[in-house]
Amino acid sequence: MNYLVSFNIQNKDEEIKKENIQGKYKDNKLSFKYDNESIKLDILKDNIIMEKENNDSTLSFNFVLNKKTESSYLIKDLNLYIDTKVLTNKLLIEDNRIYIEYELYLQDEYSGNFIYEVNIKEV
């Protein structure tokens, strides 16, 4: 099914906000593209797996409430994998909304707090 996706990503330094992006949602899987990036969200009962890919990198996060999970970050040109972890502090999965607050760790070093919110609307 076709949907309109709006999302917001923010940390202490910046905020990215996009609205009314064409997306597809089927079998608890949401996918959409913006600014040469593809984003896929696999929405499970107690966690969300996010995959984000562009020409430069591939990122995969597994959000599980109150858990620090292994994730991956690949810089394609260098064929370099960076050890990445996320600690999910808040995870809300609603019918048309996903809200995630998480801490990002790169090579076990704290990198920052992030908020990721996605809203979907059937068209």
CATH architecture: Beta Barrel
Q: Strand portion, in percent?
A: over 45%
Low-confidence stretches: none
The H-and-E topology, N to C, reads as: EEEEEEEEEE
Class in CATH?
A: Mainly Beta
CATH topology category name: Lipocalin
Q: In whole angstroms, how far apart are the ends? A: 8 Å
Q: What is the CATH homologous superfamily assignment?
A: Calycin beta-barrel core domain
Find the count of extended strands (DSSP E, 2+ residues). Answer: 10
List the helices and strands and how they pair.
Layout lengths: L1 E9 L4 E12 L2 E6 L2 E7 L3 E7 L3 E8 L3 E8 L4 E14 L3 E10 L2 E14 L1
Antiparallel strand pairs: 1-2, 1-10, 2-3, 3-4, 4-5, 5-6, 6-7, 7-8, 8-9, 9-10
Short description:
This protein is an all-beta fold and 123 residues long.
What does this 3D model show about the protein?
The protein has 123 residues and is an all-beta fold. It has a single domain (2-122), classed as Calycin beta-barrel core domain (Lipocalin, Beta Barrel). The chain is 0% helix and 77% strand. The protein contains no helices and ten strands. Strands 1-2-3-4-5-6-7-8-9-10 form a ten-stranded antiparallel beta barrel. The protein is globular, with a radius of gyration of 14 Å. The N and C termini lie close together (8 Å).
